[in-house]
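Crash report, auto-generated. Payload:
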Amino acid sequence: MLVNLLSRAIMMSTPLLFGAISEVFSERTGMMVTAIEGIFLMGAWAGFTTAYISGSLAMGLLFASFAGLLVAMLYAYLCVTLKQHQIVTGTAINILVAGLCAFLHRVVFGVPLSPLTVEPLQKIALPLLSKIPFLGPIFFNQNILTYIMYILVPLGFFIMYKTSLGLVVRSTGENPEAVDVSGINVSKVRFVTVMVSGLMCGVAGAFYSIGYLGMFTTNIIGGRGWIAFAICFLGNWNPIGAFIGTIIFGLAEAFAILMQSGASTFLPNELFIALPYILTIVLTISRKSFNVPAKLGTAYIKEN
Amino acid sequence: MDKKTRDILITSFLAVIMGLFLSGIMILFLGKNPISVFALLFSSMFRDGYTIGEIFVKATPLIFTSLAFAFTFKASLFNIGAQGQFYIGALTAASISLLIPHPIAIVLAIIFSFLFSGIWGGLIGFFKSRFKANEFLISMMSTYVALNFMNYLLRTVLIESKGEYPQTDSLAKSTWLFKIVPHTRLHFGFILAIVVAILIWLLLYRTTLGFRIRAVGQNQEAARMSGVNPELVFIFAFFVSGGLAGLAGVTEVNGVQHMLLQGFNPSIGAIGIGIAILANANPIGIIFASILFGALQVGGTIMGQISGVPSSIIDLMEGFVMVFVIISYFVRNKLEVNREKKLLLEGDK
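Recovered output after restart:
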């Protein structure tokens, strides 16, 4: 029971981490990716549709990341190139993508009589490691994306704090003028970072459709993109903080699924469904010291 | 008309046209002729008095949720939680109307829906001023909390007497908002929306309170130096914003549905934001932009029924229109800068 719960928590935290860590990198350059909910949804749809048609989950993941990239490029074009408002633009793109996915789903599949499904990603039990008592089944009997998450956290930390690339990313959000003076193109850094975020968030979205449920509905994401967005804040714009945040939210989500399947009768289901959202509010209020990137959310306008 | 207003009108109009044009291209994917689909869209909007009335029925809650976003936006705050505040207002309106099956319930519903959803929204402002919490995140999350709260009440205490579906009983006819045009569903809520929009405009542009709100929006620290307390403005702006979204609950429950249903109008919060963007957050502009979006929804729904074009095409149109509106902000800014440059050059001569 406990092993099941924890194993599911790790699984559910996977897409949140993909989203949160890409949000961390983008926000460190000063770009909030407020289109994250839309990018998740686009990834979920593209991943499912490709996997359903081609029969290959790998193709699904590939196209999901490509679709995420396209949405991110639209966002980056409006916010970096045209220097428009990030929250306003993100909201517009989220509405657009919601309509687009519903419309395209209808164009491709018509009105199916029974729900369309694909076989979701299989769990891979790692030899030896999965045999470790207690920890093995929790951490080492997961699908491929979760294993990628294990690599992503230290890799993200390393890039952010130990490479010159990370230094550029961090400086772009703190002091874009200095970055500009040193001959690096601020807009280019932001544009490319948002694009990479789009790739990863597309995969995160596909996790919900082909990594877990094996189907697509237009409300499949249901605010998970926003939770990843929140985790980035709560994790203090740090890959390790984001990892801790995703585990907490993964636990909350796994707990909610467990409770909904009827383990509790005296507390309402709705409370558990709302748990991750309530948790976000409580954590947002209780966090005292934030290390907000100085230029977060502001367009860089070069003086001439 | 000064040049700025002219630019706003022309670029917004072009943005709407471009948005519709791109959606037309999408219609080609369905193997249908976009021109005939659009012809059908416009003819179905105005096919009879009932349908024309529907346009204003659909516009009514959008005016409220859009005002809700615009009001905080003027203080450079982001209330993305209008959907949740709308649900709180709808819950309040339905509960009062079920408890008191008397016309007085309408007045009480309007007052208390504004009050309760105002408090629900005002809490966000309170968290922002007291704990420096990020209002964008909290308002976003509060929607999901409100939704689940509503679902819980609909499943338990508010459930219909048959106990079959998660919805309330029908409201007593005496608590319905009265119709203002016979043979349509157009109800008093639309007039209320127009009056409220004008009041909000007056509050923002003709009172010192409104001036303070906009001052905080322009430059928080400068406003503080000149004696405005931004923390109080946060709470007040979110209270009014939440209350406005709550009024949409009254007009939908007492004016249209005459009951409370699970998960109804799931996207009026988001579309309200889009309308506010299109109208440049101007309360009077919001009235017209809401009517435009109402018309798109009515036309799109009918079109879906008779031509087989899915009604998701409406969301798509709205999304494209919003993206082009954002581009039109850029174009307008460019035009403005060019004009100023020209003036400067002429001055040099």
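Post-recovery validation: The mean pLDDT of chain A is 90.
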